[in-house]
Each structure stands twice: as structure tokens, then as C-alpha cells.
Amino acid sequence: MKKLFGTEASGCRIMPFVLLGGGAFLLFALLTLPARLALGWLAPAQTRLEGISGTLWHGRAENLQWQEARLGRLEWRLHPTALLGARLRADLTLNRADGFAQATVTAGRQGRLRVTDLTASLPLNALSAIPSMGGWNGTLDLKFADLRLERGWPIQAAGRLDAVALSGWVGGWVGGSMGGSAGRPLRLGSYRVDFAPAADSTRAAVPAGTLIDTGGPLQVTGSVQLRADRSYIIEGLVTPRPEASSEIVQALQFLGPADAQGRRPFSLEGSF
């Protein structure tokens, strides 16, 4: 009996070292897990990564493709401490010859993402594979302190979006099919949407922003709402400035008669 008890006591003393060794092995395996293998499990269905190198914790892909849009070179660095709270958090950096994006992204449950410290400047033609972006040119500049997504759709937003030097076909939102001279897209100027932090953090609140122009042939004031059913509405008032081309002035007539200040109401709705 003495020998049996001695064996049990020895086993009890050894067990913590066995667990520690097993944990160290598991940690080493995770730290050195090839990114190519790990991302095969983790990458969303609509995302494709090419030229993957590095590890799960710090790696890169020579090209990130979302749907049909080729976005650029992606680098990531995971935060291991976030795993203690059953979350996945990473610093992401996207680079391309004509733009960049960087942010910290935290993945939660049920397809929820929280994006913080987002700064980006990307050309619209990088998103030309998205049907609503086809035929438009310009630059999107984003600066968001906090952006929360559920299944890829914003449910809370605090930050600013600038659409700079836009050009495109205006028929989609004025009811005509007007382009510039010789069939070229019209130059429409630059615009800004400011999303203020929600006063109420409940799920009933929807992201809403104020819309203004920041220069160009059109004076615009309005609002943007992103609804929970993945639809949006953009509405406001638009007035042509003296430098507006005859094509723009003619296109705006599809919106109906102007008020005494020369303003016409517009509304654009859609869904993703």
C-alpha cells in the first residue's frame, strides 16, 4: 500500500509538468502554424487570398480579392491576448500602388466585426467589380474611430467618409441617362458623409450621417441612412453652381421643379 500511495503522489507531482509541456507544445504549434493552412479554415467564403506567406500570427498575402475586386497586398498581425476573451483581433494593413487601408479588426460571435482606428484611401475603380460602383471614378477616403459590422453590414458608425473628385453617369439618380460631351462621364465634385457616434447603443439605432459637398459643380446638403435590412437611403437638396455644365443642369431637371433658392430634392434608395 505504501508503494501504491507513493506512485500516486509521484503522479500528482508530475502531472502539472505534463500539462505545462503539452500547453507549451500547443502554443508553439499555433505560433508556427503556416498562414496558408490557417487561412484555409478562417477566410470568409467571398474572400480569396493569393501568395500567402508567414504564420497565422504574422503573415501576408500578395493579393486580397473580395468577390471579383482585387484590393491589394494584405498584412496582418494577431493579438494573442484577445484569445483569452474568446475573440480574434488583428492589425490589418492593405497596400496597393494607388491607395492603402489600415485598421484594427476584432471578430466576435454571429458574424460581428468591430473595426477601430480605420484610415483608408482607395480608388473607386478598385471596387469596380461591385455593380453599383461600375462606371464611377474618384477616391474614397475613410477615417473611422469605430465601425461595427454584422454580416458585412454597418450597424454602428463613428467617423467620416470623403468621396473625392467623383465622375460618373448621373442617370441612375436623376432618372435620365446623361453623360458629358462625347459620351464622357460627368465630373461631379467631392462629397463628405459624417457619422456621429450613436447616442443610443441599442440595436434599434441605425447608422445615420450628414451629407455635404466639399467642392464642385453641385451644392448638396442631405443625409444618409443605413438600415438594418441592408438597404440605404440618401436624400437631400441639390443646387447647381454657376460653373455647372449644361449637361448637369439639364440632368437635374429630371428631379422636378426647383424651389425659390434653386434647390431640388433628390432621393436615392437601394440595397446590398
From TrEMBL:
Domain of life of the source: Bacteria
One GO-annotated biological process of the protein: protein secretion by the type II secretion system
InterPro entries attached to this UniProt entry: T2SS_GspN_CS, T2SS_protein-GspN
Cellular component, GO, one term: plasma membrane
Keywords attached to this entry: Cell inner membrane, Cell membrane, Membrane, Protein transport, Transmembrane, Transport
Stated name of the protein: Type II secretion system protein N
Record organism: Steroidobacter denitrificans
Protein family: Belongs to the GSP N family.
Record localization: Cell inner membrane
Primary location recorded for the protein, binned into one broad class: membrane
